[in-house]
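Notes, p. 3: input format for complexes.
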Amino acid sequence: MPISILGLTRAKDNSQENLELTIDTLEDVALAEPLKASVKLVKYSHELLVAEVTLSAKVNVACDKCLSEFVQNLNTTFRFEFTDEPDESQWPITRDSHIDLIEPIRQEILFSLPTQNICQEECNGIA
Ligand SMILES: [Zn+2]
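Output follows (127 residues plus zinc ion):
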């Protein structure tokens, strides 16, 4: 889902644009319901656009102890930098002034999910 930033590229530095995203599916992330994200795009300079993404996601995970599925809530804010010539911590702006927010969001969610999933403190494991 590429997003056009043509309006921002023509705007003054420090111009902002807000948008709401709904993401139905993400590769390797078992979304329990469509993910809602609020995005603030800020044009810092001709070369640099920053996206602040605030999202709440419900992700289906399996308990490490009893293997039952439960929903892990993730409420978080990510900050992504977009530029024409990205380094490894940045993301590209295409020649026709589009950015893709889905892949950065997907990767950050995968990083942010706990490595251990326990359905509840008293989980007794497989009965
Ligand atoms: Zn459990």
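Residues 81 and 124 are 44 Å apart (CA to CA).
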